[in-house]
Design goal:
heterodimer; A: alpha+beta; FAD/NAD(P)-binding domain; D-Amino Acid Oxidase, Chain A, domain 2; 3 domains; 9-stranded mixed sheet; B: alpha/beta; 7-stranded parallel sheet; binds flavin-adenine dinucleotide; 2-methoxy-6-polyprenolphenol 4-hydroxylase activity (chain A); EC 1.14.15.46 (chain A); oxidoreductase (chain A); EC 1.14.15.45 (chain A); FAD-bd (chain A)
């Protein structure tokens, strides 16, 4: 048997050789240490850091550093500029509850946020429509809004102000993560993160909040599956006349499902709103290239004109673009006048895209409340577009060569914006991961270990997956490629019931409680949409009589979803 | 009943059990080469590999990693409970281990010792296997928050590293009997021995030493695997044969101890012994069988 002194000698020898190795292998850069290194100062990374720093346990025991490539002082100095930013998100009541709990919401400039009190969603082909308002939300306390539209900058600034009050969080901005390697000296598995300013940080846990192209995810060797939607989202800030004295205030969000993708109108103030228009990439490019006044008319038409004519206008826009002479406003107005006439749309009605601005500010015509107010102009410089894709990392926690890594927000998943959920999912991730780490600290665990992180994917992976697939199915349901669905929609079959599913999902996700209510809604929505597609498929074979069946199953679903949970 | 002064044989089986077979052979070569002054990077690589293996949460010792949070929670909860019973109402539950002198007997690769240290305990982890101590020391020296001290292995990151670690951690290759002989009785506030007692040849003597080294009013935590058919199924059959989680032979059936046997052992010790040490302390025995998650 080995004596103690023998093993001491062995250890001493180990140490000596280690020093030598270190000198040989590493050059003179001595790594700094931290317990949690967050890569990415987007909404998810900042919310996670703020949540983590708000825990007393964490404050006492962990050193947390956040690295962001861009200049965050600009975000911090953001102070009610005249124009609105084009990156606006709908923050659900549940997310707002979380932000309030971690002391961040009080730093949000509330005057720049806008409550959504009502939503109107309709089908571009059949015009079947659902409307729902906050008053319909099932809750023990009355809820006045479905969600709160907030500029991402406003939220990020609030989070930065909150973090400034938390001494245990250190932010390094204008610093890029250049490479990540594993410090596998002596069986260690800690990541060594090389920064653009030459510093090297050795971290117990590396958090990838670094967006869809996540370098942390690549380092961890975590695969991400998914597909591009062959769709780009055009965003922009729209100006319009205020709602008249006889109309409700501008607190209604509108979304029309066109076969090319949905177009959404999200209120920001009485005279400004944000747009997210998801459409084919070629069309998005063409729309971005036209004159601003032409785009204004196209947006108004996209909410109003029957689908066949929109399709025609889109082909005109594309042709003109390809021929090198983009469509002019006069040409477009001429087309619109002709189209509206053939659809018997009166040029003074709410459904005309040709009203003058004087008309727009007068007494609103009948039906005006079912449409967004007519757009008069676009805030310069706010039109931009993003490719949309569905992606989901195969796991959220790295192992082996990628040990001590974890993903949150868009680094873990990206989702179609039609339900305004991307950022909300990221915030829910941030909350769950911070909670998981807090518990691990309480239990004396190594917070970088797989065991310590286990509860995070358990809480989030399936929840996110349900939401991703529900939204994916909704997107597919309304896009032209799903054959049975197109057939069903072209004959107007029970689209209202499909919309009920959308409604259920949106309403549930707007819930005030930070429980799994929202997720339950999405789960039901996912199942509902799935069964609709299946039912429609059989419907085509069986012909008539199936509509009732589909309707009944969706109604059942809706009842289930809106019944308060036990 | 007095503690056995002869210690080696008691933990001999534990040594073999808690050590990978290759280690035992390697150990010898490491020991024999220790007189030479030449640096041998092979040895580092070897221990690094072993350490990585031991600490692989999905690997052979995965069950141990899974059980660790449960054990830690158990210890914390019991300590908190006792503190309240002793009338310490202003207790900060999160800091119940802070500043306590804790001995982890049979610390293995150091999993439990590290957790105790993070919770603020000044921990001494001992193991009868030199290579376990090397594994544990290497691992701890990689973690700047552990205030790891070793007479032979200086801290890898030196004192320049700012950390918020609270407790101090030390490892030593020794047995509880030798430690008792050296430090004397009444030395620790808390003594833990997790999944060790079922591996020792003479549990009675082993447990007596554990009890003696404890301060009056201290706490002794033991976990073992109950000698029940279910435990047999779970640990021997499922784990070893079926899932190959554990090197076959890691657990020896005849050394399993039933929690009730442990309790009665201490009750006997309590009433028959003139020792003051464990008598005022609480005896907590928890069979951990049910906490094992297989798969
Ligand atoms: C058109 C559109 C509309 C949307 N509308 C909504 C909505 O209404 N509601 C909603 O909830 N969500 C919406 N989303 C989604 C939402 O914007 C995203 O989910 C959200 O921004 C993701 O936040 P994040 O912090 O995870 O990632 P990001 O915002 O992408 O942040 C990642 C950060 O990491 C940094 N980074 C990356 N690599 C490095 C590196 N190597 N070194 C240092 N830093 C690095 C980047 O600089 C960036 O700041 C929309 C998305 C789109 C495209």
């Amino acid at each position: 048997m080995l004596s103690t002194s023998n093993s001491r000698t062995a250890l001493r020898q180990l140490q000596r050789s280690r020093c030598l190795l270190k000198r040989l292998v590493h050059n003179s850069i001595v790594p700094e240490h931290c317990d949690v290194l967050v890569v990415g100062g987007g909404p998810a990374g900042l919310a996670f850091a703020a949540a983590l720093g708000s825990s007393h346990r964490v404050q006492e025991s962990l050193r947390v550093v956040l690295v962001e490539a861009s200049d965050l002082s600009k975000v911090k100095q953001w102070s009610l500029p005249e124009g609105y930013s084009n990156r606006v998100s709908s923050i659900t009541n549940a997310s707002r509850g979380f932000l309030r709990d971690i002391g961040a919401w009080s730093h949000v400039e509330e005057s720049r946020t806008r409550p959504v009190e009502e939503m109107q969603v309709w089908d571009g082909i059949s015009d079947a429509r659902v409307a729902f308002s906050a008053s319909e939300l099932l809750s023990s306390q009355p809820i006045s809004e479905l969600s709160r539209l907030t500029e991402n900058l406003n939220l990020q600034r609030a989070l930065l102000h909150r973090i400034a009050c938390l001494p245990s969080i250190e932010i390094m901005d204008k610093v890029k993560v250049q490479s990540i390697v594993q410090d596998n000296q002596d069986g260690s598995d800690w990541p060594l993160v090389h920064l653009s300013d030459g510093r090297v940080i050795r971290t117990r846990l590396l958090v990838g909040a670094d967006g869809p192209n996540s370098p942390v995810r690549s380092y961890a060797g975590i695969k991400s599956y998914g597909w591009a939607y062959d769709t780009h989202a055009i965003v922009g800030t729209l100006y319009h006349t205020p709602r008249g004295p006889y109309s409700p205030p501008n607190t209604t969000a509108y979304q029309r499902f066109l076969p090319t993708g949905p177009i959404a109108f999200l209120p920001l103030s009485e005279t400004a709103s944000s747009m997210v228009w998801s459409t084919k990439p070629s069309l998005a490019a063409a729309l971005k290239a036209v004159e601003s006044s032409v785009l204004v008319a196209m947006i108004n038409a996209a909410f109003r004109l029957p689908e066949v004519s929109i399709r025609y206008l889109h082909s005109r826009i594309l042709e003109a673009q390809e021929s090198g002479s983009p469509l002019t406003l006069d040409e477009l107005r001429e087309e619109l006048a002709f189209r509206e006439q053939s659809h018997s749309i009166d040029s003074h009605s709410a459904f005309s895209s040709l009203m003058s601005s004087e008309e727009a500010s007068g007494i609103p015509p009948e039906g005006a409340d079912s449409l967004p107010p007519p757009i008069t102009s676009i805030q310069p410089g706010t039109i931009a577009s993003f490719p949309l894709r569905l992606s989901h990392a195969e796991s959220y926690v790295g192992e082996g060569k990628g040990a001590r890594t974890v993903l949150v927000g868009d680094a873990a998943h990206t989702i179609h914006p039609l339900a305004g959920q991307g950022l909300n999912l990221g915030l829910a991730d941030a909350e769950a991961l911070a909670e998981c780490i807090d518990q691990a600290v309480a239990g004396g665990l190594d917070i970088g270990s797989h065991t310590a992180l286990l509860s995070y994917p358990r809480n989030r992976y399936f929840e996110n997956h349900k939401m991703l697939s529900a939204v994916d199915k909704l997107h597919k349901l309304y896009s032209t490629t799903a054959e049975p669905v197109v057939w069903a929609r072209s004959v107007g079959l029970e689209v209202v019931n499909e919309l009920d599913t959308v409604k259920t999902a949106l309403m549930m996700s707007a819930g005030s409680h930070r429980t799994n209510v929202s997720q339950t809604g999405w789960e039901l929505a996912a199942r509902g949409v799935g069964s609709i597609s299946q039912n429609l498929h059989s419907a085509r074979m069986l012909g008539e009589g199936v509509a009732g069946m589909v309707g009944a199953s969706v109604q059942q679903l809706f009842k289930q979803a809106t019944t308060p949970r036990q | 009943m007095r503690a056995s002064t002869s210690s080696r044989h008691i933990l001999r089986s534990a040594k073999n059990i808690r050590t990978l077979h290759t280690t035992v052979q390697r150990q010898t070569s490491l020991a024999s080469s220790s007189s030479s002054s030449t640096v041998n990077p092979d040895e580092i690589a070897h221990f690094s590999r072993l350490s990585a293996q031991w600490w692989d949460e999905r690997g052979e010792f995965g069950m141990l990693h899974k059980m660790n949070p449960v054990r830690t929670q158990f210890v914390r909860e019991k300590l908190v409970e006792m503190e309240y019973e002793d009338g310490h109402e202003d207790l900060n539950e999160a800091k119940v281990l802070e500043g306590l002198k804790v001995l982890d007997v049979g610390c293995g690769g150091g999993l439990f010792s590290e957790s105790l240290t993070r919770l603020g305990a000044n921990t001494l982890g001992i193991d009868a296997s030199a290579s376990n101590i090397a594994i544990a020391s290497l691992h701890a020296s990689n973690d700047p928050a552990l205030s790891f001290t070793s007479s032979s292995l200086p801290q890898r990151f030196g004192s320049s590293v700012s950390h918020k670690g609270k407790g101090k951690l030390t490892y030593e290759h020794t047995s509880v009997e030798d430690l008792l002989a050296r430090e004397g009785p009444n030395s620790f506030d808390v003594v833990c021995s997790m999944e060790v007692v079922e591996h020792v040849d003479n549990p009675r003597a082993f447990l007596t030493s554990c009890a003696e080294i404890l301060k009056p009013g201290g706490h002794l935590f033991l976990s073992t695997i109950a000698r029940t058919p279910l435990a047999y199924f779970l640990t021997i059959f499922s784990a070893e044969q079926l899932l190959r989680f554990v090197t076959p032979g890691t657990h020896t059936w005849s050394k399993y101890i039933n929690p009730s046997e442990l309790t009665s052992f201490f009750h006997n010790l309590h009433s028959s012994s003139s020792l003051s040490s464990p008598s005022s302390g609480e005896i907590e025995v928890k069979g951990q069988t049910m906490d094992i998650e297989v798969g």
